[in-house]
Amino acid sequence: MIFQSFKIKELFDIHPTKSYNLTNSQLFCNDGKVPVVTNTSENYGRSGFSNLKPTEHDIITFSDTGTKSPESFFFQEGEFIGYAHVQGMYPYSTKWGKKQLIYLTTILRKKTHGLYDYSTKMTREIISNLDIELPIINGTTDQIDFNYMETYIDKITQEQVNKLDTYLRISGLNSFKLTDADRYILSLNKEYKEYKITDIFNIVNTHSILQSQINENSGGTPYLTAAEGNNSVSTYISCDDKWIDEGNCIFIGGKTMTITYQEKDFFSNDSHNLALYLKDNSKRNKYIQCFFITALKKSLGTKYYWGDSISKKKIQNDTVFLPINDKMEIDYDYMKSYIKVIEKIVISDVVKYKDSLNTASDITSD
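== Restriction endonuclease subunit M ==
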């Protein structure tokens, strides 16, 4: 296959997505059906849903202001609502279909990886002037081979489906049907009570190892940052154990309020980051701590942001709402059971997605 260099501006017009001039409370709603694409690099850039009319559809989007802008490139399938600082890529040719745009998204992520962040903006002007390598039809100098890109994505998709199938079978996660007990857990209308976070957790600042001081992929210990995506893991490194932080905890990216569960010991890039350890060691399991992550996001997510970040001092006065049992105590059993049910539902959705890809592959091969 022969590849040729093209400038993005030769292929796409880039401009801000159409958005509503509304506050988040006016834009988002719990029963909304239309995705809202924001400046996050998680969940395909989608931060929630709205009942307002969609403003965009079927394009590549990226954020020009995110903390990890290169990871905000996503192909948005179907209709959605745009947002401030979310740029859209509008192809000049109708030959750019779903699979070709997914192919391009991967190229864009690789070309911009590690180059831009919140302080070094990834503007639409920069992306417009970006040079990329694309496959061309044999015997030509500038005719993009759109069929090759589609075939390539089909091949990668099938490989991933096969890997997922093997993983689900070996791990036993292919047993995901909800039981009557699971449905009962989902039906409960629990009462919640407010607790001081410091009554439940021991809170420490993590150690700090600057990015300039590490060798990426030099070891097997996670190196965490405050960036969204990939469970806050930037790379895996080897370093002096005196800088290591104990795992099996909740990790909060101090400047971004990214909250994750860290199963293993880790290194951290910034002492502003926080590690929360449950005081009751018997409750320090994955499921309970994953419930805490959602509860903490609900309680603190709108309070702190880049310009007014969380800290060990500030969190001393913060509270979190948690479900309680008949004894008016934190219902840890419910928290554990609820997350296990959610895990089943997520696995079910993944399997359905895998099966849909297999069905699509069978149809196209007939």
